[in-house]
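Reference record
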Amino acid sequence: MNIWLFGYGSLMWRPDFDYLDRKAARLHGWQRRFWQGSHDHRGLPHAPGRVVTLIETTGYCDGVAFLVEAAVAAETFEHLDHREKNGYQRIDAELGFRNGEVVSGIVYVASPENHAFLGPASLREMAHQIHRSRGPSGTNREYLTRLADTLRDLEMADHHVFELEAAVNGRQ
């Protein structure tokens, strides 16, 4: 059976795997937060960057769902398990599409119990950390900017992301 995969961070703009379909989707009961440390992509072991994870809440998170073909699902998830190795785990989720359809899917979440979880911080502290962090995949600032731009392109709002972007860019 084909599998829907929900992306809410870099998967939205850099899906480096094959997929059959791509749709805007919403995940209820979760919100995106820059609370996960990145020691391997947007930061370094001694100076982690901040990337997004999901926290359980009464809100929702908008993102992109990718339909992964059953024939390549094992290979795709092996690749993604490596890409998301710094504290993320796959969980089952229900995804809603703009047409009202609801499907079962999978999402990667970095829980507060993982070794790289940084948790909440003040807007100023997060902005400073993102502004100065850099790793093998590029600057942390680029990650934030790409996420904010992708959300705007998809006409999705996320106060946390946009407020943090403004702070990093010195507008707040």
Observations:
- The chain has one domain: 3-168.
- The two ends are 47 Å apart (CA to CA).
- Strands lie at 3-7, 21-38, 49-68, 89-97, 102-109, 134-135, 138-139.
- The mean pLDDT is 96.
